């Protein structure tokens, strides 16, 4: 729940920034000189990129959460079996051991979105965020292509 609140607050702050920057871009366009119009267009591009980025990430998170909910209903969410340091950090050797099992599981069933989801969690636990994201994107793609149940 805390993560959702943090995400929503961050998104609201970003939207406020996009509106503020967009209004400044429009103001520069209204000035009408070559330099202000050029700067105004440049300023307007930044909020557009930011809005796209925010939308893409929100969509990704929503789809990943949908998979997590479905996997939880099936009883297939990965169990937290990681050893932690006294400070609460994940022990690297423990994360590597779980990752090796998840990787092998995914290699045995490369078309199962559930395996890719669990692999994404293992990548995240091993602090490899780019690969975690790619594995989750693969899980989402496989899930969305699955045949409808009769």
Query: Kindly, what is the distance between the CA atoms of the first and last residues, rounded to a whole number of angstroms?
Result: 34 Å
In DSSP terms (H or I, runs of 4 or more residues), the helix count works out at 5
Structural class: mainly alpha
How many domains, in number, for the residues? 2
**Main sheet summary:** none
Low-confidence stretches: none
Helix content: over 70%
Q: Count the strands?
A: 0
Radius of gyration: 21 Å
Helix and strand sequence: HHHHH
Shape: elongated
Compute the average pLDDT. Answer: 90
- Classify the beta-strand content into a percent band: under 5%
What does this structure look like?
The chain folds into two domains: 73 residues; 54 residues, Serine Threonine Protein Phosphatase 5, Tetratricopeptide repeat (Alpha Horseshoe), CATH 1.25.40. The two termini are 34 Å apart. The protein is elongated and about 60 Å long. Helix 3 packs antiparallel against helix 4. By secondary structure, it is mainly α. It is built from five helices and no strands. InterPro entries: TPR-like_helical_dom_sf (IPR011990). Keywords: Membrane, Transmembrane, Transmembrane helix. This is Tetratricopeptide repeat protein.
